[in-house]
Prior knowledge:
Layout: E1 3-6, H1 13-16, E2 21-27, H2 32-43, E3 53-59, H3 67-76, E4 81-84, H4 87-96, E5 102-107, E6 126-130, H5 137-148, E7 154-159, H6 164-171, H7 173-181, E8 184-189, H8 193-205, E9 210-213, H9 217-221, H10 223-232, E10 237-239, E11 250-254, H11 256-271, E12 287-292, H12 293-298, H13 305-308, E13 313-315
Parallel strand pairs: 2-3, 2-4, 4-5, 5-6, 7-8, 7-9, 9-10, 10-11, 12-13
Antiparallel strand pairs: 1-3, 11-12
Helix pairs in contact: 2-11, 3-4, 5-7, 8-10
Pfam families: ABC_sub_bind
InterPro entries: ABC_transpt-TYRBP-like, Peripla_BP_I
Protein name: ABC transporter substrate-binding protein
Amino acid sequence: MEIRNTVATSPPAVRAQAAPRRVGLLAAFENFQIFKVWREGLSDHDWIEGKNLIVDYRYFGDDSERAPALAAELVTLKPDLLFATNPQAAVALKSATANLPIVFVSVADPVGLGLVQSLSRPGGNITGLTELVPGDWIAKRIQVLKELVPSASKIALLINPHNPQHKLRLTDEVPRAAEAVGVTLLIVEATTPEELDMAFASAVAQHADAIVIFGDPVTAQNAPRVVALAAKHHLPASYLFRQFANGGLIVYGPDLADVFRRAGGYIDKILKGTKPADLPVEQPTKFELVFNMTTAKTLGLTVPTSLLVRADKVIE
């Protein structure tokens, strides 16, 4: 188990005399770059870890079944607020307490998961920022991939069956996406880094023409490995987060750094007394479409002008 506690204060004199506030953070892994942005978001509101803020970190790694026990452990520390960085963490914290305020990020459909009653009126002790705008996001990702690979008739979706958000979308969005785009969608699964190899081998065995990587801690933590597997099997791949742009063909998704930074504002409001039920769940406001032209050339693909003009960044 990885445990790290840090204590802290902020410039305002009124806080300098007060006891530090406590936040319990539950995640799969420590993401140094994203957590740095999150801390910057907090410092924008004068909450400085190591001065007027104590942060208790708990990580469940590849084993999401550990999340409920770690959530319960954080609750026993009696924090002022709990912070969840993915769907597994959010579900675990919501189940662990109905009283302590919770802020989540990177949850695509909090209503579908039963975390909140609605985006505008969460109605409980939990609120936060979604990973995506609810709707046909999977279809949009597949459509972009299909524009780049027009001949693709079978597209694999790499999911983690232990991710509650993925299970929800398999029964909801995926069937609609297959019909809307007119392709056969194949499901391949990975719950651990070791299973990533088997998932790609399964996609190839089923004659997939391309692959869409769902957002998940397992794939995010192993981004170089995932990108390398796509290259090894000569599979055009679409990813959700910017970190995959280093070698990844397409990135199409939210600006995750912006979401984590904005979470600092929610935490600030709750630490100052606002109830989570009074804070509507916010959606991403910045999205990125990135193409890696070197990878496209390696795969023998030409990125059409219709996609290039929509791109936020083109990596040569």
